[in-house]
What does this fold into?
Amino acid sequence: MPNISGLELAEILININPKTYIVFQTAYEEFALDAFKKGGIGYLLKPISNEDIKKVLEKINLFKEEKTTSKRFLGRIGESIYILDMDEIFYIKADLDEIIMRTKDNFVYAKRKIGDIEDILKDENFFRIHRSYLVNIDKIKSIKSVSQSRFEIYFNGIDEFILSSKEKAKEFREYLDKKTV
It folds into this structure.
């Protein structure tokens, strides 16, 4: 292991994936405050009891339940109203004064601004690859570099692609570098 402290490693891991659950285990209680400041969810002080481990695991499960609650969006197709889980959305496109949410089978419309949706999804796996598009990273099948340093983004489950802007392609590449191992 590189010569870094557990606190430094925790900071690196949280920067890679903010949804990481870190539990510190040590014989030194004086580092507890720093551990929580670095993103730790638990702090086990030696000697560790089964009850201590149980409490930390219960805490992790509570956080998991909170984080796995998917954000939901209200939209319409014609006169019908739909409730979409965030996980159903492949991408979101700005269209005048509304957005279009692309699902596997439909285009669902909502009177929202893409900037507002971007704020709502900022901690999720969505990235704004163009001023008019947010993409669900979990739905991407492949990314192809094309002229003018832009990307064509293809999706699993739908037979279409969208094109990034040149500026956002650079940001997207940096974002992916931080998200992948």
